[in-house]
Amino acid sequence: MAALGWLTPRRRSATARSVLAGEASAEAARKSSQELEELAPPVAAEEPEFPVLGDDRAAAFFDLDNTVMQGAALFHFGRGLYKRKFFETRDLARFAWQQAWFRLAGVEDPEHMQEARDSALSIVKGHRVAELMSIGEEIYDEYMAERIWPGTRALAQAHLDAGQKVWLVTAAPVEIATVIARRLGLTGALGTVAESVGGIYTGKLVGEPLHGPAKAEAVRALATAEGLDLSRCAAYSDSHNDIPMLSLVGHPYAINPDAKLRRHARDCDWRLRDYRTARKAAKVGIPAAAGVGAVAGGTAAAIALHRRRR
After folding, report:
1. Residue 58, Cβ density class (10 Å: 0-12 exposed, 13-18 middle, ≥19 buried)
2. CA distance 78 to 124
3. What is residue 193's DSSP assignment?
4. Are strands 200-205 and 194-197 parallel, antiparallel or unpaired?
5. Contact partners, residue 145, CB within 8 Å, separation at least 6
6. Active-site residues: which are they?
7. Pairing between strand 251-255 and 165-173?
8. Residue 233 CA to chain centroid, in angstroms?
9. What's the pTM?
10. Cβ-based neighbour number of residue 209 at 10 Å
11. Which pLDDT score, from 0 to 100, does residue 297 have?
């Protein structure tokens, strides 16, 4: 064994220089590790889960037209009433023009909306509220069910699954909005209230249409009554007219936004969702004549439909 002693390193006590070398190496390693951590790309913080499960002081408010449903609810309701001979072909042609404008421009025209409301009020005057509610159920199945945006529906369901209340907020008559909310399994609806006496429509409104700032006031009033914290609530809309409502809540979303709302949402760092499969004609530069053709085609189709029924 002694012959192999040269293979075994001799034990030597550490000198001051070796201690210094060891400490210097350890310090260098520690500094290098720190530098690597600093150079490493930051790990993105996970976005807090939303909606918050079990937050009973939070709720969600959804605009209806072009947010939850493609097109205007009032137009689809008008189609159903025309089918049931509530009004004449000229009224349907006007509805078709207004709907074509809405689909092409992507925004609500105040004059068109006012005309549509006035027409609807004159049409339902003298009819029973219960009758219109029953017809509304049928019209939902005929014209509205297939026009619900799946993406927006999923957002509403996420709030429901979290145990939160979900409300529609729309300028459409509250009776129509209530039917749609019930069929979608939502909590309820805020909408324009038409005056009725003894369960019969008078042809007048209670106050004004639930539009623009009026929506914000309705949401504020409901939040107070329900004990909600608006900073924990969410609101969803496609229209810049609803900026007052969106600005009320802590979680505003622009859904299928018009140009003005898209710009505002980006400036305010609001979340955007667009479930449309193609850009609207006005956004991609289709000539104005194409828009006129679409309107003319819609009107011609309405007249043809009326003639076939004669």
Report:
1. buried
2. 11
3. P
4. antiparallel
5. 183
6. 63, 65
7. unpaired
8. 13
9. 0.69
10. 20
11. 31
Q: What's the token pair of residue 223?
A: 């939040």
Tell me how far apart the alpha carbons of residues 130 and 109 are, in angstroms, rounded to a whole number: 30
pLDDT along the chain (310 residues), means of 10: 45 58 58 52 53 91 96 87 77 55 52 60 84 93 95 96 96 92 96 92 86 93 96 96 97 96 97 76 30 30 36
3-state secondary structure of 31: helix
Here the tokens at position 142 are 């005929």
How far is residue 186's CA from residue 1's CA, in Å, rounded to a whole number?
A: 90
Sign of CA dihedral 278, 152, 106, 75: positive
Q: What is the 3-state secondary structure (H, E, C) of 216-252?
A: HHHHHHHHHHHCCCHHHCEEEECCHHHHHHHHHCCEE
Other CB atoms within a 10 A radius of the CB of residue 191 amount to 25
Closest to 117 in 3D by CA, of 200, 241, 208: 208
Q: What is the rounded CA–CA span in Å between residue 185 and residue 94?
A: 32
